[in-house]
């Protein structure tokens, strides 16, 4: 009997020694990240029965039945490292060593020198690769960011939010290309008025024009009362009024013949439109006739921006074929630029004599002439038109004699005028951008510029401007400035402008310095009386041909907000109030190439790269593991577990699914050891150990008494 109690006491010492060891391990790991405390279970030992049955059973002590892990959720510690992760749920991070997967709750991860996301034991964290939308693809594997970069994105959209000061005054800039005015005051007498170049207001321009007319000697002698012809300007309407009280009928000559050098170059600046003014309409284009005692008000608001085309030996050549014959047309190079002015041919509005369209037409027809100056029967007769709203040229050809196809070879290295005229050598009407030539295949057909070519821009008349960087297909930044010119009450011109050095085939100043050039044809902004944007006209899709080898014909949409005509409020972009002009917002969707500067990890495990160019891009998604019986996992040390038969097969999935839990970044899960509880357990184990030791000494004394019976 005493011998049995001795062995029972020894078993008690053993199991409580185990308990104290476990408690010591728990306390030792009370600050170990992701540690889960253990709990010991004892089992009793049955060795004999005194009388049979259950009533007389005597135990032989206790044994350690098992040690289980307590997978209770612990609290999180906030850190400053974005790759410190904690799981709020029952899942495990997956780490791997040479293809063998292990599992951990300790999320103290870093990126090593090779770009791998690893734990403190240098095991690679496992996850999926993802597409641009963050959707997983393929099997899990190492998460590696060593080869991650952000490619550049060309700008496709610009949005501007600005206020344009409604109290701003309209500026009129006169130069050598728009400073002439022609007056017909009787018979063959034409008064050609040339104003001094410079910047005027509406009132000063009207006063200067009136003074020049009234003080001209020929005009004084040709009319009864020269002082009776007056010119005024209205700030309210933005238009000019010509009043005739001279005693004679006065004609404003806006229909000068296209070949005349006396064309009224100022007419567009004054808002005078070439059109049929006969009553009834007879199909002819007439001068503006102002009878004595009447007046005439401008047809439209002024056009404040002349479009000037500079031609040099680097951009004046066109190679084309008519049938099987190749021709070379050369636009005449001159010191002064060609204009986009319009005149009349007696029946219609046509390009003026010194316009780019007429110069192009002359060059094309001149190229097809024979040596004696005549046009071959198989050669076409070219006509060139220009649309100042779209900024595009139209080349028409009507072959005489035997029809022959006309093919313009814009891709030919000998053709240098494509960008001068708005053609790109890498452009295809079907948007595949592989066809590099245009052909007139009918007996009567035409080709049109594919974009509005760059023209010289004078910012002097601008009331306000705002600049921003946009990006080409190589990721290079280019500064584009949007200029605003007030045409009149509630109406403004806008122009997209760049330096010539930023544009492919840009034309610098004569001294080599940058010249401002307009890209596209600009447009008109109209505002409602309450300051909201009423409408936009013109072409907001601007084609940029950047210098530096980037893809040509980069289309950028310029957005000034949703106008009221479009169904918008007219207040979410550009407005016009009686307040200082200012830019409130400007955005563009392009960016340069960038390198990885940081990562962000979301609750769903999505790892997003933060790049030096400001782009945020999905890189990978963390995988989380689940087990039917996590208590069956085998501890491997270093805060990792291994899968066993007792744990069941692993189930791998996304964070936030099937109870795996969500992921908290900048956080680490603390140990779930409760020191107070462990101390209580330690006291209990200590007392039990002492009691069992006492049991052994007591059993020893009993055995000693038995021995003493012999004495």
Describe, in plain words, how this protein is organized in 3D.
By secondary structure, this protein is mainly β. The chain has five domains: 2-72 and 672-708, no CATH class; 76-151 and 595-669, no CATH class; 157-167 and 457-585, Tick-borne Encephalitis virus Glycoprotein, domain 1 (Sandwich); 171-297, no CATH class; 317-448, no CATH class. The chain is built from six helices and 49 strands. The strands form 14 sheets. Strands 5, 6, 10, 11, 12, 41, 42, 43, 44 and 47 form a ten-stranded antiparallel beta sheet that branches. A hairpin with a 4-residue loop joins strand 42 (606-611) and strand 43. The longest helix is centred in the C-terminal third of the chain and has 34 residues, at 675-708. The protein is elongated, with a radius of gyration of 45 Å. The two termini are 21 Å apart.
Strand content: 35-45%
Termini gap: 21 Å
Determine the fraction of residues in helical runs and give it as a percent range. 10-25%
- The chain-level structural class is mainly beta
Q: Provide the residue-averaged pLDDT.
A: 87
Number of helix segments?
A: 6
Number of domains: 5
Main β-sheet description: 10 strands, antiparallel
Global morphology: elongated
**Uncertain parts:** none
Q: What does the radius of gyration come to?
A: 45 Å
Number of strands: 49
């Amino acid at each position: 009997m005493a011998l049995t109690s001795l062995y029972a006491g020894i078993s008690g010492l053993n199991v409580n020694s185990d308990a104290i060891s476990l408690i010591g391990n728990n306390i030792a790991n009370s600050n170990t990240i992701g540690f889960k405390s253990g709990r010991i279970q004892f089992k009793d030992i049955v060795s004999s029965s005194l009388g049979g049955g259950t009533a007389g059973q005597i135990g032989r002590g206790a044994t350690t039945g098992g040690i289980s892990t307590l997978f209770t959720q612990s609290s999180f510690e906030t850190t400053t490292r974005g790759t410190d992760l904690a799981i709020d749920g029952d899942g495990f991070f997956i780490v791997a060593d040479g293809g063998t997967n292990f599992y951990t709750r300790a999320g103290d991860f870093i990126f090593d020198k090779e770009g791998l996301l690893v734990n403190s034991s240098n095991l690679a964290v496992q996850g999926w690769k993802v597409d641009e939308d963050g959707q997983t693809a393929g099997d899990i594997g190492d998460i590696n960011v060593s080869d991650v970069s952000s490619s550049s994105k060309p700008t496709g959209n610009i949005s501007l939010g600005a206020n344009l000061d409604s109290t701003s005054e309209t500026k009129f800039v006169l130069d050598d290309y728009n400073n002439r005015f022609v007056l017909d005051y009787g018979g063959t007498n034409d008064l050609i008025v040339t104003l001094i170049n410079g910047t005027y207001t509406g009132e000063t321009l009207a006063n200067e024009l009136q003074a020049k007319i009234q003080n001209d000697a020929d005009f004084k002698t040709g009319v009864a009362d020269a002082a009776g012809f007056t010119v005024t300007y209205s700030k309210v309407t933005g238009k000019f009024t010509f009043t005739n009280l001279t005693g004679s009928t006065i004609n404003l000559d806006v229909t000068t013949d296209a070949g005349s050098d006396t064309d009224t170059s100022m007419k567009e600046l004054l808002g005078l439109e070439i059109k049929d003014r006969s009553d009834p309409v007879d199909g002819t284009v007439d001068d503006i006739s102002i009878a004595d005692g009447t007046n005439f008000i401008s047809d439209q608001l002024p056009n404040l921006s002349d479009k000037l085309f500079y031609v040099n030996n680097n951009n004046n050549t066109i190679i084309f074929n008519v049938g099987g014959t190749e021709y070379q047309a050369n636009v005449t190079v001159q010191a002064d630029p060609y204009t986009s002015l319009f005149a009349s041919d007696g029946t219609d509005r046509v390009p003026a004599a010194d316009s780019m369209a007429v110069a192009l037409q002359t060059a094309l027809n001149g190229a097809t002439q024979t040596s004696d100056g005549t046009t071959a029967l198989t050669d076409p007769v070219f006509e060139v038109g220009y649309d100042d709203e779209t900024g595009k040229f139209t080349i028409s050809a009507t072959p005489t004699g035997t029809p022959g196809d006309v093919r313009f070879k814009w891709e030919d290295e000998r053709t240098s005028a494509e960008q001068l005229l708005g053609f790109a050598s890498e452009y295809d009407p079907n948007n595949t951008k592989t066809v590099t030539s245009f052909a007139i295949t009918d007996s009567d057909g035409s080709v049109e510029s594919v974009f509005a070519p760059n023209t010289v821009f004078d910012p002097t008349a601008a009331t306000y401007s705002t600049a921003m960087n946009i990006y080409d297909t190589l990721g290079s930044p280019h500064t584009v400035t949007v200029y605003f010119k007030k045409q009149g009450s509630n109406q403004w011109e806008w122009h997209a402008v760049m330096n010539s050095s930023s544009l492919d085939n840009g034309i610098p100043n004569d001294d080599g310095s940058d010249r401002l050039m307009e890209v596209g044809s600009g447009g008109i902004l109209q505002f409602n009386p309450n300051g909201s944007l009423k409408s936009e006209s013109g072409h907001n899709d601007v084609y940029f041909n950047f210098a530096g080898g980037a893809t040509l014909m980069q289309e950028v949409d310029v957005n000034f907000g949703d106008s009221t005509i479009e169904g918008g409020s007219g207040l979410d972009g550009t407005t016009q109030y009686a307040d200082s002009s200012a830019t409130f917002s400007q955005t563009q969707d392009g960016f340069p190439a960038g390198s990885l500067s940081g990562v962000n990890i979301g609750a769903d495990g999505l790892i997003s790269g933060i790049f030096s160019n400001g782009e945020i891009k999905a890189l990978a998604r963390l995988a989380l593991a689940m087990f039917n019986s996590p208590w069956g996992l085998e501890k491997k040390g270093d805060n990792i577990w291994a899968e066993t038969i007792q744990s069941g097969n692993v189930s791998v999935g996304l964070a936030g699914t099937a109870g795996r839990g969500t992921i908290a970044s900048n956080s680490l899960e603390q140990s779930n050891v409760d020191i107070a509880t462990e101390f209580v357990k330690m006291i209990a184990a200590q007392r039990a150990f002492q009691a069992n030791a006492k049991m052994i000494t007591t059993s020893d004394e009993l055995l000693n008494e038995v021995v003493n019976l012999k004495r």
